Amino acid sequence: MEVAVHIHVEHLPESGYLATSEQLPGLVAQGRTVAETLEIARDVARRLIEARSEREGALSLPPMAGNQDFTIVVAA
User: Fold this and answer.
1) What is the pLDDT of residues 20-52, one digit of tens each?
2) What global pTM score does this model have?
3) Residue 7 in contact with residue 38, Cβ under 8 Å?
4) Whole domain around residue 37: which residue ranges?
């Protein structure tokens, strides 16, 4: 099953990007590009969800279902 996790990405003054999630506390990911940061964040989210599910049972994250809108980042 896929779940939807809201990720906040901010540009760091010293370069690079930082991803966090209010929805999934403990999720912190940093990368050189937005794409790399999101890839790392997805991996961290998966590991956090697996670990918390083992300890606490199912998490209350919304399932990924139906139509969703996404923003993609494209280098130009």
Assistant:
1) 999 899 999 999 999 999 999 999 999 999 888
2) 0.80
3) yes
4) 1-76
C-alpha pair distances (Å), 35 with each of 2, 44, 48, 61: 20, 14, 20, 23
- Torsion of Cα atoms, 19 then 56 then 47 then 61, to 10°: -50
Tokens of 38: 């999101």
CATH at 1 = 3.30.2390.10
Using CA atoms, how far residue 46 sits from 2, 5, 20, 49, 51, in Å, is 10, 10, 14, 5, 9
Would you tell me how many other CB atoms lie within 10 Å of the CB of residue 24?
19
Q: Please count the structural domains in the chain.
A: 1
- From its phi and psi, is residue 28 left (phi > 0), alpha (psi between -120 and 50) or beta? beta
Residues in the chain: 76
